Amino acid sequence: MIGCRTLPAALSTPVARRAKCGCAEPAPPAVHRHVSCPAPYRSIYRDHCEATLDVVMNLQFHLIEKLWQTFWYSTAPSSDSTTTIVPNSDEEIEGVIPSEKLIALCKFEPVKQWMRSCDHILYQALVEILIPDVLRPVPSTLTQAIRNFAKSLESWLTSAMSNFPQEIVRTKAAVVSAFAQTLRRYTSLNHLAQAARAVLQNTSQINQMLSDLNRVDFANVQEQASWVCQCDESVVQRLEQDFKVTLQQQSSLDQWAAWLDNVVSQVLKPHEGSPSFPRAARQFLLKWSFYSSMVIRDLTLRSAASFGSFHLIRLLYDEYMFYLVEHRVAQATGETPIAVMGEFSDLSSMMPPLLEKDASFSEDISDLGSDGDVSRGTCEPAIKSERIEINHSLQEI
Predict the structure, then answer these.
(1) Which of 39, 180, 337, 372 is the most buried if burial means most Cβ atoms within 10 Å?
(2) Can you tell me the distance from the alpha carbon of 57 to that of 70, in angstroms, rounded to the nearest whole number?
(3) CA-based R_g, the chain, Å
(4) How far is CA 368 from CA 96, 363, 374, in A?
(5) What is the pLDDT of residues 109-126, one digit of tens each?
(6) Phi-psi domain of 394 (left: phi exceeds 0; alpha: psi -120 through 50; beta: other)
(7) Measured between alpha carbons, how far is 369 from 312 in angstroms, rounded to an integer?
(8) How far apart are CA 184 and CA 17, in angstroms?
């Protein structure tokens, strides 16, 4: 049986494990004005986190469900639902906390905050272990395994904590949901990156994209977008020219990533150190998405031969911008990206819906990046209409 106290021997020591993943336990909070969080509970929960880390590092995703069931053992609480007993001595906990007292302990807000901080650190470490570089190729079998794992997380947790009050379950589920969403987003971003890499390495497609982009009426785009976004016209023009130059140079995916990172740095630099930094970052995402959708619309109306390539690149750059911004906000606020996603859950509604990695998605991406996308001629508009419907809400942002 997988317990929260017995760890697999995948890694050497708890200290080595935490050092390897950058995982550090936050300082224990005060449970009450004169009552500290019991040290045995901190030790038990730390061991539980270490066991979770070991299981995921060994890619034994299916064991997480059993691990959670073991820790949040499903023992029915006493009939007195108002129990508020908090263990005050180390002797009262000998490796196992009675169900009623565990529930009572979890009801204390400082303890919930402490557990949430531990979870943020743990799940961020797991993300960085599973997907250390969102642009680097990941085996398709591992990608699918991670996505299946993400789909199951919330149901596993709610099932394991079925006997706990909803307020406690919601606290735990919020962090797990942010973790699952992050895994889904990062695997989608990684898949898009590999598809776009082929487009960016194709000289004929790049030349066609440049030709089509030079036909876009950017003055009209700026005129329509300025009322909504109220952006500095000089900044928009500079980004337009930089984009064209970078495209003309047939830059690699890594060079494009560096360019996007530089754009984020320039735009958010005036807001560094300001409490309004997270809001400014969200506003930038909205404006970036609005401008890019206007350009895509213009390409659509002109029946651009390279529409498929632009559509794929746009999907990738929007997702990567989201990735960069969430990390900048995390750095500015001193939180982990997982914590940012939990706190600013509305960020996800500002970006295109995640594309599930199924057969149809893989086929569509392959079509978008194929060599045939340049030579479709008069048949292009009908094909483009079908592709636009796949991401209809993307065009509505």
Answers:
(1) 337
(2) 19
(3) 24
(4) 55, 9, 10
(5) 888 888 889 999 999 999
(6) alpha
(7) 7
(8) 25
